[in-house]
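Handover notes (outgoing to incoming on-call)

Open items:
1. Ribosomal RNA small subunit methyltransferase E: sequence verified, structure written out, both below. Nothing else pending on this one.
2. Nothing else urgent.
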Amino acid sequence: MHRFYVSREQINNGTATVNGEEYKHLARVLRLAPGDPVVVFDGAGWEYDGVIKRLQDGQADVSLTSSRFLPRESTLEVWLAQGLPKGDKMELIIQKATELGVRGIIPLELERSIVKLDEKKKKEKRERWQKIAVEAVKQSRRSLIPQVLQPCSLELFLRNIPQGALLLVPWEEGGASLKVVLEKTPSNKPVYIVIGPEGGLSEKEVALARSSGAVTVSLGPRILRTETAGLAAVTAVMYQWGDLGA
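Ribosomal RNA small subunit methyltransferase E structure tokens:
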């Protein structure tokens, strides 16, 4: 059954209002009509069965018939801090990281990032990336929508990491075995994973991260591309501590 995202504010008195891009997909792409059954979800854990009641003025009113809370989210909180890569690689990274269950993605402006964004472009990119995350949630049948934050500097990112979180920095120059680090660390911590862009992290950036408590780790003997490294690290953490493979 077709699945559509609505915010909590769009659900009132047993009716969900589907608008914006979701309405365009419902009405113009899928050509659904009044009487058709659909599923809507609020991005905060709840999913609803419903029937389209009317299509009017760029919105669809859906009469809700049942609701359920979905236990599809890991209790493990994983954030991917990804150095801005070239081209459309960020879109792939966000899509796949969302499927793997991350709580959020933080684009980082790093020394070796070739991509440079002004404030207007940052806003446009973030909106585009957030839409990709929503689509990935719909496809993977997740119940929570991960946040895609505005691109920021490494310094700002490090200042805002919550106390007690585990900060991992996969680095091609070497570090402790990721497997060993996870085995020796309590698994009730939020995890933040920092990935460099093409060319990797600079020694200065690694030193800065270490001064904030980061642990440099190895993902194995092979050099991984930036679009592979973050997903590999997220997969390893979610398998060891989360619900991947459960």
